[in-house]
Amino acid sequence: MSATSKPHEIVERALELSTADGCVVIADEESSANLRWAGNALTTNGVTRGRTLTVIATVDGAQGTASGVVSRSAVTADELEPLVRAAEAAAREAGPAEDAQPLVTGVPHSADFTAAPAETGSEVFAAFAPALGEAFGAARAGGRQLYGFAYHAVTSTYLGTSAGLRLRHDQPTGTLEVNAKSPDGTRSAWAGAATRDFRDVDPLALDAELAQRLAWAERRIDLPAGRYETLLPPSAVADLLIYQLWSAGARDAAEGRTVFSKPGGGTRVGERLAQLPLTLRSDPAEPGLEAAPFVIAHSSGDESSVFDNGLPVGRVDWLREGTLAHLPTTRHSAQLTGLPLAAPADNLILEGGGKQSLADMVAGTERGLLLTCLWYIREVDPATLLLTGLTRDGVYLVEGGEVTGVANNFRFNESPVDLLGRAVEAGRTERTLPREWSDYFTRAAAPALRVPDFNMSSVSQGV
């Protein structure tokens, strides 16, 4: 096997080298392209390529099955056998794995398993880059400066197991973030978008949105901390609900450690959490937000298990018309809790609101705040899922259905579960970029939410 072996060949060779009782091999082939700009001019661009190989060895023993996981990048032919042996040694040195299950079987092979990996490159920006240049010209003419970053990656994942699975998934991921600043730097606005191919993003439209927000910020209003009627845009809603999903593991809930634990024992599955008929779901086949239709687990954790690699993933309703319907489970945690198996796909959709846009919701606001996005979100209390964080790049005061100026930023303290219960209006669902989690989670869609008493716990001096 040469250093330039194809990913599927590396998977097959690693499986051949394995002497463990079970083996899972994951080859991730990634290419990426990026553009960066500042002060209305491109500054850098680049293209990268890389390969990461993960070997998971399982060893049966008298007390149970142990697992060992080793991942390395840029693995050459000479390094492949030492990598396999390292995973086997890690398994033999480990104690029995609590999440041990038989390796998944019975999943049909991917027809393109032996095909070359998908790739991206600078050509992904062929239409976007000229449009970005036009946005630079519009910004210069309007006396504002644009800063930002466009990133596109394609990861081809090849998964093979000693139990016979041969699966493949190509995942494109694109993000666009743009900041507009006034010449003196005192006013700042942000806009972002998630995309699969950069054909559906419009830099000129984003610049027009940012120009509007900078114009709103020409009037400054200082507001104290307190509870305010607040319009949360889709980006902020997605950020909060992603954290909620990450905190919704069935086992922790069943053991009484989370907001989804029922007092006295059990979970809150079946309980109504939202007064609006909202549905929160994941679906690997969601148009525009497509994700892997099978489990890809490089390690075991509270909501993932290396033993579940290759397990089919379908649509799961976490919240169905306001009622908690499922909590994330592995095969192991499903057995522990008695809940149905529910493996989350790598996307999240909140729907069930009306058809109104965020602008329509602003027009229907007598007095309240319009946020741009949230930042630096951290957990305060897992028992209630109380989160804290900051607003950023524009908190606008709405009076009489119109934005009348920009307020100071705030630190907030809120639980997304409580917010769902208190939200009184939801707009139309839109694809959005969760700003806080954009390095980890980009495939999301959500409506804007109106919360009558959002808790701005203190004033922040950030821009």
TrEMBL record:
Taxonomy, superkingdom: Bacteria
Organism: Actinacidiphila epipremni
Sequence ranges assigned to domain Metalloprotease TldD/E C-terminal in this UniProt record: 226-457
Protein name: TldD/PmbA family protein
SUPFAM superfamilies tied to this protein: Putative modulator of DNA gyrase, PmbA/TldD
InterPro entries: Metalloprtase-TldD/E_C, Metalloprtase-TldD/E_cen_dom, TldD/PmbA_N, TldD/PmbA_sf
Residues covered by the Metalloprotease TldD/E central domain: 129-216
Pfam families reported for this sequence: PmbA_TldD_2nd (PF19290), PmbA_TldD_3rd (PF19289)
Phylogenetic placement of the source organism: Bacteria, Bacillati, Actinomycetota, Actinomycetes, Kitasatosporales
